[in-house]
Write a structure and sequence with these properties.
The complex is a heterodimer. Chain A is mainly β. Helices cover 4% and strands 63% of the residues of chain A. The radius of gyration of chain B is 46 Å and the shape is rod-shaped. The chains are: A mainly beta, B alpha+beta. The interface between A and B is medium-sized, with 17 and 21 residues.
């Protein structure tokens, strides 16, 4: 293994889901009904060289909604953030996943509908 | 004083130009049926305006209808007359020529006839009585009472005509008698070249106050006998002078020309007054106000810049003018234009002045609201922006939209730099979920917000979405 890769936080994948159970996303999707009350962003990092943290920055119609700081630990880590849904939350959303320095790792796009 | 102050040089040109057109119509069509009908139409129009002024609704409506119909009828019924007047004349004659009335006078006809007889050496005797009656002095004669014409006179004295040896008596514009035998003069001092015709002419001139024109058959020369004298005539002008003097029509001819000149002058004055009246009725009637909302137009914008914001999009103009002109205003003839030639990126403030506003003639600006417009310009750039599908509605129960792939994922957009730098997503138009039961493909249009954004040439404007629908795990 290359040292540089070993020493760098590596994003593996991320999904939006209805909930997370036993560190597994349930019903990953791109559209969620407001009726389920909650939506989660589940992200997996397969190389975590040291304890650090990442950000889940939530945007509703391009307006920042919340910014969650999540800890990730070596050697692999999965983490998630959730928001409670209200009637006014309908519409297009995105979650920007970035490292502690703010480098953008991934963007997830989804919608909250009826 | 204030009335004259409102008259522009364009108004003067307007009145003079139309007066001249009306005057030319008179010159071209006078003494034709078309002119009489045109006069009738003008009267109808005047009556219609009077009816409108007094509020006679039905009368004005009927007159308006008749006038419109009559104008159409003129073109159809008098198309041949119109065509003949316009075709027969060249451009100069139509624009500024004065057609002369070419009705030849009796004197002119006699002179022309005498010329024709001279050239052919046809002998002739033409008697023009004055005040005295010739009945007792002449013999024979066949009454003719025909209108004087060159053809008639030459044919009377034609060699094969039974009456050619006699004299023709012309009274007014008619040939009264032909084949008339005149008394001969017995004078012994006549030159030898004078024949019987000359002697007959002198014979009548000795006994009456008539004037007799003689054409010699042998020499083709013209002589005139009057008051016991006979003399040779050397030119047409001399003959015309003698005839005019004898018939006393010289003053009358001059009078005719004077009368014509007077008529033309009156027509010119009437044209100016008529058109001035029309102009006043159109442009200086009751002062009426109107308020129009006119969109502001921007000109000479640097193509690198984009208008991203304007404080207003329309300008309210309070306009004044005569009721007729105000009613006839078409919104597209009123324009508010702002020159962006010197505008810079960022906020620009423009004052709206009279120079920025185009109005139809005769309409005046009273007020502009607002008097200032703020326009924000931005530099135009091109940028790739991620696309996001804007889902709405509700999937059928028990189903989830688990995955989508769409193409293109990013779209090239042209717009203001400040807008595009802050724009992170281009959304599609609303895509409804309600009827989606199984996986499939659909297309969605882009909803470009703000509207000033444009999709770059060559970039797709529709998004192809492949979606996967799965049962929801409860």
């Amino acid at each position: 293994m290359d040292d540089t890769v070993q020493n760098k936080l590596t994003f593996h994948h991320a999904v939006m889901c209805e909930e997370v159970k036993d560190l597994a996303p349930i019903n990953p999707a791109v559209v969620f009904s407001i009726k389920i009350g909650k939506v989660s962003c589940f992200s997996v990092f397969d190389t975590v060289p040291e304890k650090t943290f990442i950000y889940h920055k939530w945007f509703h119609k391009d307006i920042p909604s919340t910014n969650k700081r999540l800890t990730v630990q070596p050697p692999r880590w999965a983490t998630y953030s959730s928001i409670q849904l209200r009637e006014t939350d309908k519409g297009p959303w995105r979650v920007e996943i970035s490292d502690r320095k703010g480098n953008l790792l991934h963007i997830l796009r989804f919608s909250i509908t009826d | 004083m204030s009335f004259f102050a409102t008259i522009r040089w364009q108004d003067i040109v307007d009145i003079l130009l139309n007066s001249y057109i009306l005057f030319r119509l008179y010159v071209l069509f006078r003494e034709t049926y078309v002119f009489r009908v045109l006069t009738g139409l003008a009267l109808l129009w005047i009556f219609q305006r009077i009816a409108v002024f007094f509020g006679l609704i039905l009368t004005s409506w009927v007159l308006q209808g008749i006038t419109a119909l009559a104008a159409l009828i003129i073109i159809i019924v008098f198309r041949n007359e119109l065509r003949s007047v316009l075709q027969a004349k060249n451009l100069k004659a139509i624009l500024w020529g004065f057609p002369q009335k070419s009705v030849p006078t009796t004197i002119q006809i006699i002179t022309d006839s005498v010329n024709a007889l001279c050239k052919r050496h046809i002998g002739a005797l033409i008697v023009l009585p004055a005040k005295e009656d010739l009945k007792d002095m002449v013999q024979g004669g066949i009454p003719l009472r025909g209108l004087v014409s060159k053809e008639m006179i030459t044919s009377i004295f034609w060699g094969d005509n039974p009456v050619h040896d006699g004299a023709a008596i012309i009274e007014g514009n008619r040939i009264a008698e032909v084949g008339v035998i005149l008394p001969l003069s017995y004078r012994s001092d006549l030159p030898s070249q004078y024949g019987t015709r000359h002697r007959a002419a002198l014979g009548l001139a000795e006994t009456t106050d008539a004037l007799i024109v003689v054409v010699s058959q042998e020499t083709g020369k013209v002589s005139v006998a009057k008051d016991s004298k006979i003399k040779k005539i050397q030119s047409n002008a001399a003959l015309i002078n003698i005839l005019q003097e004898h018939m006393g029509v010289y003053e009358e001819e001059n009078g005719y020309e004077k009368k014509e000149r007077f008529k033309i002058s009156i027509a010119a004055i009437v044209s100016v007054f008529f058109i001035t009246g029309m102009w006043l009725s159109f442009s200086k009637g009751l002062d009426t106000l109107i308020t129009l909302e006119i969109p502001a137009e921007y000109t000479k914008r640097d193509p690198r810049f984009e208008i991203v914001k304007a404080s207003v999009h329309t300008v309210r103009l309070d306009l004044a003018g005569s009721a007729t002109l105000i009613k006839s205003i078409q919104p597209e003839t009123v324009q508010v234009k702002l020159d962006l030639g010197n505008a810079v990126v960022g906020r620009n403030v423009f004052s709206i002045t009279q120079e920025n506003i185009t109005l139809p003639p005769g309409i005046f600006l009273r007020k502009v609201v607002p008097s200032v417009i703020e326009v924000t310009l931005d530099e135009t750039i091109q940028r790739k922006i991620p696309v996001q599908i804007d889902w709405v509605g509700e999937l059928p129960k028990g189903l989830i939209l688990s995955k989508i792939n769409f193409d293109p994922e990013k779209i090239e957009v042209i717009g203001g730099k400040r807008i595009l730098e802050n724009l992170s997503t281009i959304y599609t138009e609303k895509v409804h979920l309600d009827s989606m039961k199984t996986s499939g493909t659909l297309f969605a249009n882009l909803a470009l917000t703000p509207a000033a954004l444009k999709i770059a040439p060559g970039s797709k404007d529709k998004i192809r979405i492949a979606y996967v629908i799965k049962p929801r795990i409860e």
